[in-house]
Amino acid sequence: MADGEVIAVAADDQHRFSKKQTTEIRVLTGLGVEGDAHLGLTVKHRSRVAVDPSQPNLRQVHLIHAELFDELREKGFTVGPADLGENVTTRGLDLLALPRGAVLKLGTDVELEVTGLRNPCSQIDKFQPGLLKAVLDKRANGKIILRAGIMTVVLKGGIVRTGEAITVVLPPPPFFPLEWV
């Protein structure tokens, strides 16, 4: 039984904020999305490359839950699939509640391991002013909650298409909460 669904897929060979939506993407084992600027064994995000270009790429495939877009629309923002730079937009799956090491099976072939949370940067406010604050929350203890999706690495490659089911396989306990990567 599916835990969620892929409602959109996207890639972009340039380091732009938003990606280009398409009907399918090819995901390569250990690398990420074919033709995407973030493809590779080592980190490709510019700020992280500047610090240490030899870091492992724990951000090969970025996923965001469409429910976030619904919430943002209620706050007056216009945001849809691929706008925030994600490769896969999901529905029906609480991505942010997944533990580190959970495996997402997309369709029949692709397996992605959850590595952590996306840490949204100031570019999000250049896309739409005030959006950065809208994708962050605070717990009662003051700790910031990052809600701009999750990052994964590719365990098993293949094609991901819009409309495919997503199944979650949890790692053995204890479960570790997601932190930004």
Automatic annotation (TrEMBL):
Gene3D superfamilies in UniProt: PK beta-barrel domain-like
One of the record's GO molecular function terms: catalytic activity
Domain MOSC: 20-169
Pfam families to which the protein is assigned, alphabetical: MOSC
PROSITE patterns: MOSC (PS51340)
PANTHER family attached to this UniProt entry: METAL-SULFUR CLUSTER BIOSYNTHESIS PROTEINS YUAD-RELATED, MOSC DOMAIN-CONTAINING PROTEIN
This protein's name: MOSC domain-containing protein YiiM
